[in-house]
UniProtKB/TrEMBL annotation:
<dbReference type="GO" id="GO:0051301">
    <property type="term" value="P:cell division"/>
</dbReference>
<dbReference type="InterPro" id="IPR050206">
    <property type="entry name" value="FtsK/SpoIIIE/SftA"/>
</dbReference>
<feature type="binding site">
    <location>
        <begin position="250"/>
        <end position="257"/>
    </location>
    <ligand>
        <name>ATP</name>
    </ligand>
</feature>
<keyword id="KW-1133">Transmembrane helix</keyword>
<dbReference type="GO" id="GO:0005524">
    <property type="term" value="F:ATP binding"/>
</dbReference>
<dbReference type="Pfam" id="PF01580">
    <property type="entry name" value="FtsK_SpoIIIE"/>
</dbReference>
<dbReference type="GO" id="GO:0003677">
    <property type="term" value="F:DNA binding"/>
</dbReference>
<keyword id="KW-0812">Transmembrane</keyword>
<keyword id="KW-0132">Cell division</keyword>
<keyword id="KW-0067">ATP-binding</keyword>
<dbReference type="InterPro" id="IPR002543">
    <property type="entry name" value="FtsK_dom"/>
</dbReference>
<feature type="transmembrane region" description="Helical">
    <location>
        <begin position="60"/>
        <end position="76"/>
    </location>
</feature>
<keyword id="KW-0472">Membrane</keyword>
<protein>
    <submittedName>
        <fullName>Hypothetical cell division FtsK/SpoIIIE protein</fullName>
    </submittedName>
</protein>
<keyword id="KW-0547">Nucleotide-binding</keyword>
<keyword id="KW-0131">Cell cycle</keyword>
<feature type="transmembrane region" description="Helical">
    <location>
        <begin position="32"/>
        <end position="53"/>
    </location>
</feature>
């Protein structure tokens, strides 16, 4: 409208023309009302002031720096301003050299975030969201969700987006693959920090691309959770054990073994103190047999596994009878240790089990343990290749679940719950290659609706041999 007022367009004004485009319905040309220049200039000025204020609120440090520099140049001349810039640069350089972590925290990552906001996100925002189908047209005007802030750290960019009124976070979750491609990232995870907002997490570097050595055996006994690996942010990941059950789902070769052994490794000091016991079901006889001396009970055949699980149910019920009316939770002690029931391949005992009576006994014992074991100190940690198999019935009884590499995208939601795949848990895309992919899995954490990618420390055969030599009960007793 402003141009129509300020500039006389050539040719005659065409009025009341109805135009059509092949991809839209009828579009009517709006009536042009000549506006006084002063109104248009005032509107432009208002837009400018609003833009400056918005910029100052969103980027206070950058705006303050530019303003301070302008003030110095105005009051003292450009030489003083240039000297100030050089001096500030030297100070920042010294800070970065002596205290790189605090420098990155307060200055470095802010600068990276600002650059990424400007160069990667802001530049393509409207077009990328329009092509992804995340903009909305209302009465001929197109509205784009607001790109409010970008925060960066060593691994990820977190893009804070204010949704359009009436838009829902699921729309972004469904388009996470489009967004990842649009902004050149390997993936995009969608979180909802509060109503009306989404946070899109774009990883810049993959910290998990190389295997991680087995996590150190803790110095002090601890049973609540175990440090089994590292998250993509580089933080240790503690898997909850006490008061819960854990399901590890992953195709063959996905690295379930390193998670199972990571649990054993982290609980060794507690086991040495008598506060944790390992009962192992190893129907494949491949995985757990290697560290057999570490286990207080070990079962391999279907019959033996059924007996072991029923013994766990008896121990659980005996405790429940004693606790009834007296206490509501379990505290591990040498008299009342946490019993960790490890099951290497759940489907061997359920879906592939040919002996019907064994299958029924295992199913009944597992269902009882999973529904009643948590409060009295019996935790099940089970591995499973195919989450579609007959374990469907008990799958949801595991409060903590890990989706390692899976064969099909549909399997992800079966393991992690509805919507996990859309929110970025692309477990079917974890590389098959052992070096780049084994041991990587997606987990859900209580603090965030977005799945978190974790790589378990690689517990090698040599680590297991060392664990057996240093920590098995027989050897400790002999010493
Ligand atoms: N965290 C890890 N980091 C790197 N390599 C790993 C990791 N975990 C396992 N591996 C390697 O990947 C291969 C497969 O691991 P593993 O046997 O644990 O897989 P799995 O899921 O138990 O497979 P299956 O169900 O067939 O037994 C092994 O060679 C192992 O050494």
């Amino acid at each position: 409208m402003a141009f129509i007022v300020l500039r006389k367009l050539p040719g005659a004004e065409v009025q009341g023309v109805v135009s059509t485009r092949p991809d839209t319905s009828v579009v009517f040309t709006p009536t042009v009302i000549p506006t006084p220049a002063v109104v248009v200039i005032a509107a432009k000025l208002w837009g400018l002031v609003a833009g400056v204020v918005r910029g100052a609120v969103r980027h206070p440090v950058s705006v303050a720096l530019v303003a301070a520099l302008g003030l110095v140049a105005w009051l003292l001349g450009w030489r003083a301003a240039a000297g100030g810039v050089l001096g500030a640069g030297a100070l920042l350089g010294a800070w970065a050299g002596y205290r790189p972590e605090s420098f990155m925290r307060w200055v470095g990552w802010q600068a990276v975030a600002w650059w990424r906001w400007l160069w990667v996100y802001r530049r393509h925002w409207g077009a990328a969201l329009a092509v992804s189908g995340l903009t909305h047209a209302v009465r001929g005007r197109t509205y784009v969700p607001d790109l409010v802030r970008v925060k960066s750290d060593a691994t990820n960019d977190r893009v804070h987006v204010k949704l359009l009124a009436g838009q829902e976070d699921g729309a972004f979750a469904e388009r996470s693959a489009n967004l990842a491609h649009a902004f050149g990232a390997v993936s995009c995870r969608v979180g909802t920090p509060r109503p009306g907002w989404v946070v899109l997490t774009f990883p810049r570097h993959d910290r998990l691309v190389r295997p991680i050595p087995a996590r150190p055996i803790p110095l002090l006994p601890r049973v609540d959770s175990v440090d089994v690996g590292v998250t993509e942010d580089g933080r240790p990941y503690r898997l909850q054990i006490h008061g819960t059950h854990v399901l590890l789902a992953g195709a063959t070769g996905a690295g379930k073994g390193s998670w199972l052994w990571g649990v054993v490794r982290g609980l060794l000091p507690a086991a040495a103190k008598g506060e944790a016991l390992f009962w192992a079901c190893d129907p494949k006889r491949m995985e757990l047999s290697y560290g057999r001396p570490l286990f207080d009970r070990y079962a391999a055949t279907g019959e033996e596994c059924a007996e072991l699980l029923e013994a766990a149910v008896r121990a659980m019920q005996e405790r429940a009878d004693r606790y009834a009316g007296l206490r509501r939770d379990h505290v591990p002690t040498p008299d009342e240790p946490l019993i960790v029931v490890l099951v290497d391949e759940l489907a061997f005992l359920s879906a592939y089990q040919t002996d019907r009576s064994v299958k029924a006994r295992v199913g009944a014992a597992l269902a009882t343990l999973l529904t009643q074991g948590r409060a009295v100190g019996v935790s099940v940690v089970a591995a499973l290749q195919d989450p579609r198999k007959e374990v469907v019935g008990i799958r949801n009884l595991f409060p903590h679940r890990v989706a390692l590499r899976l064969d099909e995208p549909d399997q992800v939601d079966l393991v992690l719950g509805d919507g996990a795949r859309d929110r970025g848990a692309a477990a079917e895309l974890i590389p098959h290659d052992r070096v780049r992919g084994a041991g990587i899995g997606y987990v859900r954490v209580e603090t965030s609706p977005e799945p978190v990618r974790v790589r378990a420390g690689h517990v090698t055969d040599q680590d297991i041999r060392h664990m057996v030599l240093a920590w098995s009960p027989d050897i400790r007793e002999a010493v």
